[in-house]
Design goal:
The protein is an all-alpha fold and 65 residues long. The protein has one domain. Keywords: Membrane, Transmembrane, Transmembrane helix. InterPro entries: Cyt_P450_sf. One of its GO terms (molecular function) is iron ion binding.
């Protein structure tokens, strides 16, 4: 028996759906289990907070945060 395109698509849909649902479930569970962090400065993309640090006395910047 030769499967049509619809049959092959149906066979492929089941494993792909299983993988997507499992990955989404794990992502949501991991997000829920993480402890909330205290508030801090908002970082810039890629460089973070490097521009906010005083280069002469960086320990003062760290204690402010």
């Amino acid at each position: 028996m030769v499967l049509s395109v619809d049959g092959r698509l149906a066979i492929l849909t089941v494993p792909v759906s299983f993988v997507v649902i499992t990955a989404l479930k794990r992502f949501l569970e991991n997000r829920r289990d993480r402890p909330s962090l205290p508030p801090g400065p908002v970082p810039l993309p890629l460089i973070g907070n490097i521009l906010s640090i005083d280069t002469t006395q960086p320990w003062l910047t760290y204690t402010e945060w």
